[in-house]
Amino acid sequence: MDTGNAEVIGLDDAGVRLIPSWAPDFDQRVRSFVRHGADLALRCKPDLAILVNESPHAIVAYADLFLGLDGRHTVLHRYPEAAAGDGRTQVFPRKQGVRPGEQRLVNRTFELDPEAEDNSWLENICGPGAGSQMLPARTIRLDAVIFEDGTLVGPNESRIDEHFAAHVGAQQDGFRLIVERVIAGDTLEDALKVLRAWQPDMDSRRGPGGPREGDQESYRTFYRYLVAGEINWWRSFYRNDPQQTYALFKNAIRAEPFRIHRAAP
Question: Do 174 and 209 have their domain in common?
Answer without folding.
Answer: yes
